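thread: overnight batch results

M.L. [08:02]
morning all. the overnight job finished for the chain we discussed friday. pasting input first so we're all looking at the same thing
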Amino acid sequence: MLQQFDINNIPQLVERLFPLWKVDGAEDSFNKLYVEMIIRTNMHENKMQFQLTEENQLCAIAFAAVKNDINDSTWLDFQLEKLNETERNSFMTGQKYLQMMEERTFAYMTEEDIKLCLFVSIKKGYGKKILDEAADCFKKFGYKNIYLWTDGECNVQWYFDNGYELLQEDIYEPFSTEDFKYKTYIFRKKIS
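M.L. [08:03]
and the structure it wrote out:
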């Protein structure tokens, strides 16, 4: 059953995600903080922060927002004060990237649309389940389309396979190298 996200599950999410989203060459402690920054940046002050659990274990999360939802930056501000200059620069680079992609996605949206900010399946089979249940909730609130952005670090094919339409594909130069082009994608799916 779809539930409101329990903030006490952030450490479990961090443990699951930090091997995937770590900053190369950084200490694990910094990487875990960096991943928590990504999670908290995608949490908004609304009732669209969901989780699915099974036997008290987190299985999947889905956070969503509309254009005017706000994000509490208190945690980020506090963390920035504790970081050295190199770590602070990494945090701010990540923040700028997240903000840029959020703005690009919101540019496609109307008042009838909702943006999927963060979606993580921890247990196999729960990704589609949480998105289907969240879409039912979004539909009850009158939203017509789900928008999201992702990048090449995720399983992009999953979105094509699950009825999402590609709206924009770009290369993000600051994260690219000569040998690797860091791709970003914006998708839309009609809520049926």
